[in-house]
Here is the input.
Amino acid sequence: MANLKYRFSSRLVVAILGGFCVLVLCQCTKNNPKSAEIHLLLNRHPFTESILRFIPEYERKTGVKVSTLLLSEEEYFEKLITELSSRSSFYDLFMVGFPHLWQYARAGWLVPLDPYIENPDLTPADWDPNDFFPELITCSRWNLEQGTGMGEGPLWALPVNEEAYVIFYRKDLFERFNVKPPATYEEVYEAARTLTRNVDGQQIYGFGHRGVQSWSTIHPGYLTAFASWGARDFDESMHCVIDSPQGIQITDLFIRTLREGGPPGWPGYTWYEGKEGFLSGRFAMWFDANHQAAAFENPAKSRVAGKVGYLLPPPGPDGRIRSSTWVWSVAMNAASKQKDAAWRFLAWATSKDVLQRTVPYENINPTRRSVWEDPKTVEATNWDQGEYRRTAHLLLSRYARIRWTPSTYVTQAGDRWAEALQEIYEGTRTAEQALKDAAEDINKMVGK
Here is the structure.
């Protein structure tokens, strides 16, 4: 009996010690950044496609394993909302635009980043948060108050790419057919009609813009024109006012331009199709993100390289340009179990050195001033005798701002708004009828 008790107590001691060792090992693993594995959910974009090239180097340097899932935009947002709404901890970092930042921050799905930036044990001394363009940090902060508060409150994400909106135009076609580059939206309409023609056996369409029934169609050139006309999405009381006289007038002109000078099947166009259309020479004008210039000026993939001009968006009736802008940022999942490791990767990916290295791979609108002003970036983006850089600088410094009212309703309201644009295009509603009906539906949505 004594021997049995001894054997039993010995086994118990061994079991306890073994369990203790496992706990210690687990804790050491948890606290050791070199043992971490982080997961990234990414949208297909020049920034992501460029950063993927350097992740193996990061893994070798840090010992951290980084897994990535790269999806097209529509698939990406479907996957992301499923992951976040289920409070899954699998993806530690993911990309957001400001509409998603507003939605996800208010839902409690994002981690405020200020404490990580301020922690010298996690953030290198030379990382320099003040090097980001101020406007891009402003739009990454929000105080969670519907209808206001952008630029206030916590920092919810870090900007990795900015875009504003220009009219890309074929200088060769404008010169050949003696058309003056447009300076007003009325002149855009006339030029689009004039340049929609068969040219040397190829059908050319005068004007291109996104068209699918999505808030993303509202956002680039159309919202730029809409805001420049003095129109707004919501007033100070969060009442939808897209059916204002100014909104109706510019919407009618914009959709007439697409109907009479754009491609058939416009409601099916995403930015992917539009970009490819301009690359292949099928558009005389394309109103979209200025960073697409990197593809248009690449002779290996573009039929229009060296023939592209860059126009600031035309001003509205008061002479002011109010470009929309978009900022892709990276945010951290509040449910992540690897927050320190995730932050270290995010700080690395948004460092001066790494952002500079992404420029040759079409991430040409860097979010840091030092990278934008670096001689290598200047050389890489000096298209059309510097005209690209001139327009990009003016947009970021003077004209391009987020034109949406800060709220959690952007994507839902934008989808309904885009439906109205398609109704106008198809001729089933006038601009006044379609926008009034959409505004009524959006107000009901917000009222709930």
